[in-house]
Design goal:
The protein is of the alpha+beta class. The chain is built from seven helices and seven strands; from the N terminus they run H-H-E-E-E-H-H-E-E-H-E-H-E-H. A hairpin with a 2-residue loop joins strand 2 and strand 3. The radius of gyration is 17 Å and the shape is globular.
């Protein structure tokens, strides 16, 4: 299990996942323990993929696991029972399910206040994320704003997003 946590910590750190801090806490912030990632990729709406020590590591939703024919995924009814209304995130190592994490997304008060203000002013929110559980529907539900005001951009636009939102001294 420790090896699985290190694999997940390495992949989330490299990919810039929201779960990065969770796994950083598990390794007590010791980034020197993280493994190098080879052939990293993000599959839109499904999750992260990468190779560590010649092992394929996947971290994402059920669809990601099914698309890669991962063995050991619980049935949908068992998943619902385990997750209890939260988001199940699967970790696969070398084609076998290694862990299932249950994630709950909650709204921070300050962020909620500003998203509501933006929605009232009819300003849309653009989100860059590599996490399968961050969807327009989820953001809409968590922050109580209309779904049509939220756009989670696909991976192919991440570089453009970074270029447009980078820090600048003058514009």
């Amino acid at each position: 299990l420790d090896e699985a946590f290190l694999d997940a910590a390495s992949l989330t750190h490299y990919g810039g996942s929201l779960m990065q801090q969770l796994f950083a806490d598990l390794i007590q912030g010791r980034e020197e323990l993280l493994y190098p990632i080879e052939n990293y990729s993000y599959e839109d709406g499904m999750g992260l993929c990468g190779w560590i020590k010649n092992r394929r590591i996947l971290l994402g939703n059920r669809e990601l696991m099914e698309s890669h024919n991962i063995e050991g995924i619980p049935t949908k009814s068992k998943e619902t029972e385990y997750a209890q209304g939260h988001e199940p995130i699967y970790l696969s190592i070398s084609g076998n399910l290694a862990a299932m994490f249950v994630v709950d997304v909650i709204a921070g008060r300050g962020v909620r206040k500003w998203t509501e203000r933006l929605a009232r002013k009819r300003v849309c929110i653009i989100v860059k994320s590599v996490d399968s559980f961050i969807t327009a529907e989820k953001i809409s539900a968590v922050y109580g704003i209309p779904k049509n005001m939220v756009k989670v951009i696909p991976k192919k636009l991440h570089e453009d997003f970074d270029a447009e939102t980078k820090k600048a001294v003058r514009l």
